[in-house]
Amino acid sequence: MHQSRRITIRELLSEQGKAAKIRLVAGEKGLDRYIDHPRMQKPSLAFAGYIEHLSDYRLQVIGQTEMSYLATRTPEEQKQAIDAVFDLRLAGVVITRGQQPPDFILDAARRTDTPLMISDYPSSTFMTNMLLFLSHRLAPVLYQHGVYMDIFGLGVLITGASGIGKSEIGLELISRGHRLIADDMVEFSRESPKVAVGRSPDALRYHMEIRGLGILNIRDLYGAAAITDTKRLSLMVELVPWDQVAPEDRVLGENSEIGILDVPIPRIPIPIRSGRSLAVLIEVATRNQLLKQRGIHSGEDFVQSLQNRIEQGH
Fold this sequence. Notes:
With about 325 residues, this protein is of the alpha+beta class. The chain has two domains: about 140 residues, HprK N-terminal domain-like (Udp-n-acetylmuramoylalanyl-d-glutamate--2,6- Diaminopimelate Ligase, Chain: A, domain 1), CATH 3.40.1390; about 160 residues, 3-Layer(aba) Sandwich (Rossmann fold). The protein has eleven helices and 16 strands. The strands form four sheets. Strands 8-9-14-11-10 form a five-stranded mixed beta barrel. Helix 7 packs across helix 10. The longest helix is centred in the last third of the chain and has 16 residues. The two termini are about 55 Å apart.
């Protein structure tokens, strides 16, 4: 289940007002307008009359350069330029470097109910810090069923059909010294084009459901060392019935990838049947993934060695 994200100006002020040194000076009625993109815009060209690419869902930043440009225009031209921009019903406007907005900007903000804010930071500092915050806050989110574990420092998602025993295997891994991140439902966000990070939804954090035992608080049972809050996803292990895996894949393994928020993640199917220690197999799969990240591919090396022997007639 993929979920787009947004943040209202009210939430922005609540979460970043102090850190970004921003305060509201006009447009209180528009505080529930929202931003859905982390990148901000500076309406320099818009003040010259070119407003076609000005987005009403991005935060607009007016810096010293824009204010200096406006000061070169006549009062009528200033009002016309500002009115044209504010008539777009922008999500919010920030004036940087602590500059006090002139009356014609305050009037436009009040007339259109556009949140108008002042930040004490210069534009470059404000935009850098705000981009970092918004990139994290607005990162795409995906909810995935499974058990998410920190195994040997790698984020490993264990998936499979309902009732196949994912939580029980997760509990065994915890008893072997690994750490729980999330059980049943995992929240993934894309932090960068090649990085997906997983965490537990707040309501489920530190808890596991084990059939026959009910809901367990892993932190209370095993201590703080048995849990962690977040980890980059590095491997997906899918538990599948034994008869659904081809014989050649049981010997050589199946190398495949799955996209989580468009981030390619290595996927390993592990066939299950009575008598197999699945926790040990998942540990080995994780160690093998660590080797692959270092450029060591055991299966490929074996196949190449075997091919060389065949070609040499051994």
